[in-house]
# Entry
Amino acid sequence: MVDLQGQYLRIKGEIDSAIQEVIASSRFIRGPIVDAFSSELSKYLGIEHVIACGNGTDALQIALMALQLEPGDEVIIPAFTYIATAEVIALLGLTPVLVDVDPRTFNIDASKIEDAITERTRCIMPVHLFGQGTDMNTVMHIASKHDLYVIEDNAQSIGAKFEGKPLGGIGHIGTTSFFPSKNLGCYGDGGALFTNDAELAEKCFMIGNHGQEKKYYHSKVGINSRLDAVQAAVLRVKLRHLDKYVEARQKAAAYYDSALEADDRYLTPFRDDRSDHVFHQYTLTINGIERSSLRADLSRKGIPSMVYYPLPVHLQEAYTSDKYPKGLFPIAEELCEKVISIPMHSELKEEELSYICTALREYQS
Ligand SMILES: Cc1ncc(COP(=O)(O)O)c(C=O)c1O
# Structure
C-alpha cells in the first residue's frame, strides 16, 4: 500500500545525516531539533502553535484534556472513523456521540450534527478522512451557535485546506499523526497538536509534559507524550518534500480516476471543490461485486488492498450500546461493506498504476 523503502532511498543522504546530527548532539528527547520542526511545521501550515507529541492518539487525548471537559460530557464524532477518535473520549470518561457520514466524502455529515446535540454536548470532533476536509463551514457555524469546542482530527489530511484555510487550524485545536504511512510520516510514532490560541497551546504543551509548569512543578495532571528528536529530524527532512509527495499522490489519483471512471462497478472518490484532497488513501466504493473475491484476485496478481474500515464505531465490541443498534447509521454501515483502498503513495510509477487499473477493469466475478 505504501513504499517507505523507495521513498527513503531517494532522500537517504538527507535522512542519514539528519539522524546522525541528533546522535552527535545527544539531545534525544525534545530539544532544539524538535523545536525547529514544530516551528517549520507551523510556518508550513500557517497555524500559530504546533505542539509535537508522542502520537496522534495522544494528541487527541491531550486536546480533550486541555478543554477540561467533565465526565459524562458528550463529544460528537463520525460513526465511520479510525477507532482512536472514539477511544480517547471513552478513556477520559466522556461520552462519544455518533453521527452518520456523507456517502460521498466519507466525512461526518454536518447536516446531521445538530440532531445529535444535547445539553451535555461540549465538543464536535470531525475527522478529515482519507485526505479531504469535512464541511467546516457548517461545523463551525453549529459550534458557535451552540457554544461548543471543535477538535479537528487531521491525522489523514495534513497540508490540505478547506476554502483556503488549513485543516487542523479552523477549530479550536487540531491534531495529527506522523505514523510512518501517513502523508507526513516519521520512522516510528509521532503526533502533534495545532492551535491559534496561545492559552490552549500552553495547556496542551503542559499536559503532554506531565502537567509540568517548570521542571518538577506540576500544576495539572498530565501525561508523558513527547516527540523524540530522531523522529523530528526525519520529519524536518520529509516536510521539505511534502508538497512534492502530495503532488505525486494527486497525480496517481487522477490516473486512477480516469482509468476507472467508465467502469460502473467502481465509484471513484468524490472531490468536494471547497477542499483540497491530499489522498492519504485512494478509496473506491464498489457496486455489485463481492469485495473479498476482488481482493483475493488482486492479491493473486500481487496487488495489495485494504479495507479502511471494516466495522463502524457503534458495531465494535468495545463500543456497542443499546443507544446505537445496528442499522442506526446506514451510510457508515454500508461503506464498511463496500469500500476498498488501493495502493496510494508518493512513489507509484505509471506502469504500476496501469497494472493495478487493468487488474480492476479485467476483474470478473
Ligand atoms: C483518523 C485518525 N485518528 C487518529 C489516529 C491515531 O494516530 P496514531 O496512530 O499516531 O496514534 C489515526 C492513525 O491512524 C487516524 O487515522
